[in-house]
Design brief:
Length: 106
C-alpha cells in the first residue's frame, strides 16, 4: 500500500551523466512503521530543484531538512559498512514529494 513518511536529510549524492553538478539523491533517515531506516531518495525531483538542492548541499544547509517521501512499504538491502555487509531496512520505490517547511529538524 502507498504511504508517506517525513524523513530527515542527512546527506546528498551528486547525480551522474546529465545530472552531474546537481542532486542525484537525498540520503535520508528516520523511522517508518516503527523501523529505523537510512536510505536514498532520487525519484520525483525536477531538474530545477536538483540544482537548487545541490547548491544548498554545497553550502552545508541541506542537511537537517525534513522532506515528505511517498513509498510502498519497507524492504531489506545489503549495505557495506566498513568491510562488512549489513542488512538494513529501506523504503520500497521512494519518491520525493516536498520539503516540509512546517516541520523543523528532529
Amino acid at each position: 500500500d502507498e504511504d508517506t513518511a517525513d524523513l530527515k536529510v542527512v546527506g546528498a549524492k551528486e547525480g551522474k551523466h546529465r545530472l552531474e553538478g546537481s542532486l542525484g539523491a537525498f540520503i535520508v533517515e528516520g523511522k517508518v512503521r516503527g523501523v529505523k531506516i537510512k536510505t536514498e531518495v532520487g525519484q520525483g525531483i525536477s531538474d530545477k530543484k536538483r540544482k537548487r538542492f545541490w547548491s544548498l548541499h554545497l553550502k552545508g544547509t541541506l542537511a537537517g531538512t525534513i522532506i515528505e517521501v511517498k513509498h510502498y512499504g519497507l524492504t531489506s538491502k545489503l549495505r557495506k559498512v566498513g568491510s562488512v555487509e549489513k542488512k538494513v531496512s529501506a523504503l520500497r520505490n521512494a519518491v520525493y514529494l516536498r520539503v516540509r517547511k512546517d516541520l523543523k529538524e528532529r
